[in-house]
Structure formats: structure tokens, C-alpha cells
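Q: Here's a chain of 250 amino acids. Please give me its 3D structure as C-alpha cells.
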Amino acid sequence: MAIIRLAELSTRAPADLHKKTIKQTTKKLKKAIADLQNILYAEARHSLLIVLQGMDASGKDGAIRHVFNRVNPQGVQVKSFKVPTAEEAAHDFLWRVHQHTPARGMMQIFNRSHYEDVLITRVHGWISDKEARQRMAHINAFEQLLQDNQTAILKFYLHISREEQAKRLQERLRNPRKRWKYNHADIQEAQRWHDYLHYYEEVFQACSPTIPWIIVPADQNWYKEYLIAYHVHQCLSSLHLHYPKKKPAP
């Protein structure tokens, strides 16, 4: 597997892309995703797990709100993983995650995920490198279990620049509509930027090659949303979904 160096990857769209054209394409993709999700739900043979990871202010909430605003609410669920509760911490680190994996027919979106247990835990030195490697092996086995149970998995890393992150964190202070998102701890975590990049790169390197990460340039929301929509559409299309045939009368 090729080694990913995030500092060498652009956080912006290619210069030759036109924002208006891409947004129109995204709109069409969202309609197609809604149609496919309806079949996914009706057929109840496959499921889809979407993992969104990224630095603070990389746009995970916005991606969920804008990319998936046309799907049937009955067929999609969102779970945000925060600091483990006392009950969750008393179990193995995947216990709280497995409860929220999608049933057949469902789309499940993780806003942060089980990968927090090998990211923030390493940045702060709460687990050793040996334990982190063990956890990543468990994660690979866990995801393979889901895949073997007809769950397709898409893992997106929203790749934001340090400059854009700082701009967005300050916007949370200035804009009354965004102030509720402000958390002083985010400013403190931003000081550990290079540590997070390093451990994200180790996660990418350690993950199963059959379920790779998709690196999404996230400085421009219109391009970020397009890429996520594109890959979700590609994934759902690859499942060869069909409405179930009408059952004959008894």
C-alpha cells in the first residue's frame, strides 16, 4: 500500500473545475442517491456504513446535512461518537460501535467513529503504540465482519488545511448561528495538528486494503460534498440493487 503523506496532498479542488458545474452535478447525484437508497431500504439485502473523520471544523456536520438531505429519513441513521460514557468505557472499545452498525436495508453515518480510539488516545498518550496496533487489527477484523454480512463501508477523511481550520474555528466565535459549536478544547486540540496528521497517516497505513480510506479535500464545501456524493453513488450502484418482486397471494 502506498504511504499517504497528508502534508503533500491538496486540500482544495483542482483549479480547472467550475464550482457552478460541480454543484449541478452534485444535485443530480443526490437525487440518484435518494432513488438508490429507496431500493436499498425496500430490498433489505445490503446495508451501507459511511464513516466521516477529520480535524475539528473539517465539515463533517455540513457534509451530513447537505449530501444526505434528500434520502428517506426512515432508511438512514446518524451516530456521533463523543467521549465514552462510564458504561461504554467499562466494555471493549468496539462495544459501543457495534450497536450502531446498520441493519440490512439501512444507511448508517458515523460522525467520528471507532477510529477515535486509535487517534485522540494516541495523541494524548492514553494508550501505548502496542495497544494501538492491537486495536487497529481488531478494527480491520470488525470491518471485515461487517463486510461479510453484506455491509458496504465507505471511510472518508475530510482533509482541511490548518489555515482553513483556524478560520472556521474563529467563525464559530463571531457568528451567533455557529457559536453553539464553539468549544475551547477545539483550540487546544488544534495545537496538536502535526500529531494528529502523523497518527492519521498511521491509521491509513494500517487499515485493510480492501476497505481503503478516501481522502477528500475539504477547504471548499462544494467540492467536498461532490466527492462524498460521487463515492456514495458509485458504491450504491455497485450493489446492483433491485426492488423485491411482489409476493404471490397465499
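Q: Can you summarize the key feature?
A: The longest strand covers residues 151-159.
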